[in-house]
Write a structure and sequence with these properties.
Distance between the termini: 41 Å
CATH superfamily of the largest domain: P-loop containing nucleotide triphosphate hydrolases
Bound molecules: guanosine-5'-triphosphate
Largest sheet: 6 strands, mixed
Structural class: alpha/beta
Radius of gyration: 20 Å
Number of strands: 9
Helix content: 25-40%
CATH class of the largest domain: Alpha Beta
Length: 312
């Protein structure tokens, strides 16, 4: 397979088709990645217990009858302080304004906190069909849920309210069906067997980043990034991938390497296993750790993550 993205077999429907972009907006940890994966039906976006992990713009493509839904899995929207954070926020709102349908995903367990409150006003200004999706209903009682729904719908006019559990799949089919009728008629933009147009390089880098965070927990700040430098299909059907982990300080490089390289070896082996599972090919993964001060202020790093470099 090539680097266009993992694929899945399916047949083109007969008759008229629909196709459109669906933007998922929500506070960090609301469950956007989990919902994207549930709709698409495979692991496309990287889910982690850490907040703000969705840095790159990852799209999943879900099929619902004759409709193709292009899901824009936006980074968690939050109060931006640093340059990188501002770039993430502005990219999320731009995607929402350009989408055909917008869905606000709320962690029903957390309820209407200031973070969700902050999303309501800009959301009300977006002139697109809007849906409210209350997620994680497996964790809360029904009366609390109804109260939360009415508080939110008082503030923004939503066309539909859904109550789901992205984790268990409860309510997912209703959401999918609504998205399917809300996107405009038109030809599919992507080949029917494509589930994600996130280039495999970027997906592979996100996987390594996820493994790094899971292993290092709080020892390493969020200010590190992973890039896939090379991707070679070998004659025997396997793939050779080289990635660089950028950190800001020598002390962080030592943490990532670990004693006698034990940490980096473990990260590499976990990442290799998962990439290999997704692309269904044998993978040889080579990881390098480089110190680059202020990588977060370098425009080139942003382009590689699919973000605009913010001014100021
Ligand atoms: N119990 C429960 N947990 C959920 C549900 N949906 C998501 N989660 C969990 O909530 C956490 C955050 O989910 P993500 O999908 O990574 O959230 P996100 O909104 O994409 O987060 P960012 O990438 O940080 O913006 C993970 O630990 C998920 O397993 C749900 O329906 N029920």
């Amino acid at each position: 397979m090539d680097q266009a993205g993992p694929s899945r077999g399916s047949a083109l429907p007969e008759g008229p088709t629909r196709c459109g972009f669906v933007a998922l907006i929500g506070a960090p940890n609301a469950g956007k990645s989990t919902l994207t994966n549930a709709l698409v039906g495979t692991k496309v976006s990287i889910v982690s217990h850490k907040v703000q992990t969705t840095r790159a713009i990852v799209r999943g493509i879900a099929l619902a009858g004759s409709a193709q839904l292009i899901l824009v899995d936006t980074p968690g929207i939050f109060a931006p302080k640093r340059r990188l954070e501002r770039a993430m926020v502005s990219s999320a709102w731009t995607q929402a304004a350009d989408a055909d349908v917008v869905a606000l995903l709320v962690d029903a367990k957390r309820g209407l906190d200031p973070e969700v409150e902050g999303l309501l006003k800009p959301l009300a200004d977006i002139r697109r069909p809007r849906a409210l999706i209350l997620n994680k209903i497996d964790l809360i009682r029904r009366d609390t849920l109804l109260e939360l729904a009415s508080k939110l719908t008082e503030q923004v006019a939503f066309e539909r309210v859904f109550m789901i559990s992205a984790l268990t799949g409860d309510g997912i089919e209703d959401v999918k069906a609504w998205f399917a009728q809300a996107v405009p008629p038109g030809p599919w933009l992507y080949p029917e067997d494509q589930i994600s147009d996130a280039p495999m390089r970027m997906l592979a880098a996100e996987i390594t980043r996820e493994k790094m965070f899971l292993r290092l927990h709080d020892e390493l700040p969020y200010r590190s990034t992973v890039e896939t430098e090379s991707w070679k299909e070998l004659r025997d059907g396997s793939v050779r991938i080289e990635q660089t982990i950028f950190v800001e300080r020598e002390s962080q490089r030592k943490i990532v390497l670990g004693k006698s390289g034990a940490t980096i070896k473990a990260i590499s082996s976990e990442s290799r296993g998962e990439i290999s599972e997704i692309i269904e090919q044998k993978v040889h993964l080579f990881l390098f750790v480089k110190v680059r001060e202020n990588w977060a202020d370098d425009p080139e790093r942003y382009r590689e993550m699919g973000l605009e470099f913010p001014k100021g």
